[in-house]
């Protein structure tokens, strides 16, 4: 159960980072480093999400 909650939290964090990046792009016109930082956070969260999913299927916590 904890694994599913972690996966949901990481996914929601990715959505928040995506919204923040869109806001930075619209507000700053893509000239600030905040957009790049938001992208880096989103990539790290995506890697964490993939790791959690692989672990969940490997351990059997997400199968079935």
Automatic annotation (TrEMBL):
<feature type="transmembrane region" description="Helical">
    <location>
        <begin position="43"/>
        <end position="63"/>
    </location>
</feature>
<protein>
    <submittedName>
        <fullName>DUF2909 family protein</fullName>
    </submittedName>
</protein>
<keyword id="KW-1133">Transmembrane helix</keyword>
<keyword id="KW-0472">Membrane</keyword>
<dbReference type="InterPro" id="IPR021313">
    <property type="entry name" value="DUF2909"/>
</dbReference>
<keyword id="KW-0812">Transmembrane</keyword>
<dbReference type="Pfam" id="PF11137">
    <property type="entry name" value="DUF2909"/>
</dbReference>
